[in-house]
Write a structure and sequence with these properties.
CATH topology of the largest domain: Dihydrodipicolinate Reductase, domain 2
Largest sheet: 9 strands, mixed
InterPro entries: Gfo/Idh/MocA-like_OxRdtase_N (IPR000683), Gfo/Idh/MocA_oxidrdct_glycsds (IPR050463), GFO_IDH_MocA-like_dom (IPR055170), NAD(P)-bd_dom_sf (IPR036291), TAT_signal (IPR006311), TAT_signal_bac_arc (IPR019546)
CATH class of the largest domain: Alpha Beta
Radius of gyration: 21 Å
Number of domains: 2
Distance between the termini: 27 Å
Protein name: Secreted protein
GO molecular function: nucleotide binding
Organism: Pedobacter alluvionis
Number of strands: 15
Domain GFO/IDH/MocA-like oxidoreductase: 185-321
Strand content: 15-25%
Structural class: alpha/beta
CATH architecture of the largest domain: 2-Layer Sandwich
């Protein structure tokens, strides 16, 4: 009898993370009904029309394949309008989105998904499990942005939908673009061949000045305010350790070919302390302990005026490696001998590569991509990092995965209240280590 998803052991949960290249082939069996239209035009729908969604659509439409954008969906009309105008200015011949296929509201995704062969899921991540589940139900090929959830119930929903996607041979590519970046792929080949031995420690970073702030406007409901400022509310974002730092934590998991069995750490609100910053912390520092005893240290922070750092370093039994999203990869042994130095010039844009490889598979009717297992693993590694910093406790993987604490509102409507509400001064409750319950 199949185990319930929340009782899966790590072996089941990680069975696909052995695919060390982001585009590892699963099967060359042709897909049944690859195109809903029966023509050679690949129809796409954009679900989430913000900056990242518009960027994903730009990359999809920039591939060499015969693609048309036929539907768009967003919670906000102005976001959809802005995205439509931006895309139309560049891809007028590939745009076929009349007003009747521009959908607005919380249920807009339900109207757009059935119209396409491939869907781009790019809303704030709190909605990802719901949208992914529906796309799989509708038998769609999928690109979805990271992270894939914000809490344990969301992760379990994603994992369940991923199993259905595999059964249906639906390609799913997730926007952890380092998996599609040449310097990371080339480095992983060498690491897997034993160039620096067993990885025993590492450090991963996303230290930066932070992101945008959108002040509250008159007549906004609380739901609209939080949706407009989604980065600062965990039911939408997951905190920046999840939304942003997942990229670096994903590399830690990739290089370890697994996930941490426990996480502990600390965090706080030290710089972004006002009511405009919702509930999230502005710094997290955690230790991820893996099954073999290896410990990888993780830092992420949003302080203005700091020295920025976004990269990864790892130490093996025979050598070490430095990696970054700027195409760097430098591998040395402990005598200082250089083992590999990646040429940073002429590398393909990994954001584009994700779409090039996905749409190549779709155009050929091939099943190649199931990125969800490692994406869910890395997303949940980041989530339990938040659990650890918010609670001050050491968080064990299996216990956290079984948690039933959901961050999502009971109802999606503009007049509905999110679970987290401000006090009379407009301030939101903040997690207090030692007091806050997370799992």
């Amino acid at each position: 009898m199949k185990k319930p998803i929340n009782q899966q052991d790590r072996r089941d949960f990680l069975k696909a993370t052995a695919m060390l290249a982001g585009g590892a082939m699963l099967s060359s069996i042709p897909l049944a009904g690859a195109y809903a239209s029966g023509s050679d035009t690949i129809k796409i729908a954009l679900i989430g029309c913000g900056d990242r969604g518009t960027g994903a659509a730009f990359q999809a439409l920039s591939t060499k394949f015969n693609i048309k954008l036929v539907a768009m969906a967003d919670a906000f009309q102005d976001r959809l309008d802005s995205s439509y105008q931006s895309l139309s200015s560049k891809f007028a011949a590939k745009m076929d989105v009349p007003k009747e296929r521009q959908f607005v509201g919380f249920d807009a995704y339900l109207k757009a998904i059935p119209l396409a062969d491939v869907v781009l899921l790019t809303t704030p991540p709190g909605f990802r499990p719901i949208h992914f589940e529906e796309a799989v139900k509708q038998n769609k090929q999928i690109f979805m942005e990271k992270p894939v959830a914000v809490d344990a119930p969301g992760i379990r929903k994603v994992l369940a939908a991923a199993e259905e996607a595999k059964k249906k041979k639906l390609n799913v590519v997730v926007g952890l673009q380092r998996r599609y970046q040449t310097n990371y792929r080339e480095s992983m080949k060498r690491i897997n061949d034993g160039a620096i031995g067993d990885i025993m420690s590492g450090q991963v970073y996303w230290n930066s000045g932070g992101v945008w702030v959108r002040p509250r406007k008159a007549n906004q409901t609380e739901m609209e305010y939080q949706m407009r400022n989604w980065y600062y509310f965990n039911w939408l974002c997951g905190d920046h350790i999840v939304e942003q730092h997942v990229h670096n934590i994903d590399i830690a998991n990739w290089i370890k070919n697994g996930h941490p069995v426990s996480v502990q750490g600390t965090g706080s609100r030290a710089w972004r302390t006002g009511k405009d910053y919702g509930e999230i912390y502005d710094n997290h520092s955690i230790e991820l302990t893996y099954a073999d005893g290896a410990v990888i240290n993780s830092q992420c922070r949003h302080f203005e005026g700091i020295s920025n750092r976004v990269d990864e370093t790892f130490q093996g039994t025979k050598g070490k490696i430095y990696l970054s999203g700027s195409n760097q990869a430098i591998m040395k042994d402990y005598s200082g001998k250089e083992l590999y130095n990646h040429n940073t010039k002429g590398n393909a844009n990994p954001y584009q590569t994700e779409h090039d490889e996905l749409f190549d598979a779709v155009s050929k009717g091939e099943y190649k991509f199931s990125n969800v297992d490692y994406a869910a693993t890395s997303t949940f590694s980041s989530i339990i990092g938040r659990y650890a910093t918010y609670s001050g406790q050491t968080i064990k993987w299996d216990e956290a995965l079984a948690s039933n604490i959901s961050l999502m509102p009971e109802r999606f409507a503009w007049d509905a209240n999110p679970r987290l509400m401000p006090d009379e001064k407009g301030l939101y409750p903040i997690a207090i280590p030692g007091q806050t319950k997370v799992i």
